[in-house]
Description:
This protein is α/β, with parallel strands linked by helices and 144 residues long. The protein has helices at residues 25-37, 68-71, 89-95, 97-106, 113-119; strands at residues 15-19, 53-57, 73-77, 84-88, 122-124, 138-139.
Amino acid sequence: MAGAGLRPKGIEGDWYIVDAEGKTLGRLASQIASVLRGKHKPSFSPHLDMGDYVIVVNAEKIRVTGDKLRQKMYYRHSGYPGGLRAVSLGDMLRKRPEAVIENAVTGMLPHNRLGRKIRRKLKVYSGPDHPHAAQSPKPLEIEG
């Protein structure tokens, strides 16, 4: 039985750092989501937060294939009539490059309380600098 004897308090997460420069958005997001959930660990249990912390730097230098910079849209609604707003991926990368990776990873996590808790372990920065040097993050190799 996987995860028998595991307790939420006994699980500690490691810190990893990922350089997003030149990486494809979807491939990067799926591998980050897997590490955040803890699926790379032999003691993975789907009902516990077993994952590690992930720091993503150079979010502004992410790569997308095809014509997604112009065609892919992000939608939000204010709740009022006529309140639908749409922003293209290209505009989003210019204004808030961190949000692009955050949205991609969030969509690959569980859509419940556990997913929201796991989501807080993702730290995304548009440039090469981050304030988590004290955690001494290990580099995480991402293919793609």
